[in-house]
């Protein structure tokens, strides 16, 4: 089965920094993220574990948290249309000690 994804022309890249290792490969592809005014789109080329996504506001308030099971982590969509204007930090983490963070603005 082939997946097809559609992005709007206003989708922006969300740079992610941190440590993300996949034990089975010497060169590990890391998840990538982009966003628009309504959603964050995360593509994970190595869906091999559960991933917890957390979004915090610039004041440190946690505004979103969800754990995606391994079978759901190849492509994740997080709705952000209800967030107020401002800067937010997205964090992805798994139980293997890997994490990625990125800052985005609405």
Keywords:
DUF3244; five-stranded antiparallel beta sheet; disordered N terminus; DUF3244 domain-containing protein; four-stranded antiparallel beta sheet; 106 residues; mainly beta; Immunoglobulin-like
Provide a descriptive summary of the structure in words.
This protein is mainly β and 106 residues long. The chain has no helices and 9 strands. The protein is globular. A hairpin with a 4-residue loop joins strand 5 (51-57) and strand 6. The chain has a 5-stranded antiparallel beta sheet, with no helix packed on it. A 4-stranded antiparallel beta sheet has the order 1-3-4-7, with no helix packed on it. The chain starts with 11 loop residues before the first strand and ends with a strand.
CATH topology: Immunoglobulin-like
User: Span between N and C termini?
Assistant: 34 Å
User: Given the C-alpha coordinates, what overall shape results?
Assistant: globular
Q: What is the alpha-carbon Rg in Å? A: 14 Å
Overall CATH architecture: Sandwich
Strand order of the largest sheet: 2-9-8-5-6
Note poorly predicted spans: 1-7
Strand content: 35-45%
Sheet of most strands: 5 strands, antiparallel
Order of helices and strands: EEEEEEEEE
Oligomer: single chain
Lay out the secondary structure:
Elements lengths: L11 E2 L3 E3 L12 E4 L3 E5 L7 E7 L4 E7 L6 E5 L7 E7 L5 E7 L1
Antiparallel strand pairs: 1-3, 2-9, 3-4, 4-7, 5-6, 5-8, 8-9
Question: What's this entry about, in short?
Answer:
The chain has 106 residues and is mainly β.
């Amino acid at each position: 089965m082939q997946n097809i994804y559609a992005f709007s022309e206003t989708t922006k890249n969300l740079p992610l920094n941190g440590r993300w290792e996949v034990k089975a490969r010497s060169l590990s592809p890391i998840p990538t993220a982009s966003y628009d005014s309504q959603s964050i789109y995360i593509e994970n080329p190595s869906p091999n574990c559960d991933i917890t996504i957390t979004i915090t506001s610039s004041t440190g308030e946690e505004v979103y948290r969800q754990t995606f099971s391994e079978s759901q982590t190849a492509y994740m969509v997080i709705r952000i249309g209800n967030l107020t204007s401002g800067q937010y930090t997205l964090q992805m983490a798994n139980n293997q000690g890997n994490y990625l963070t990125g800052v985005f603005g609405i």
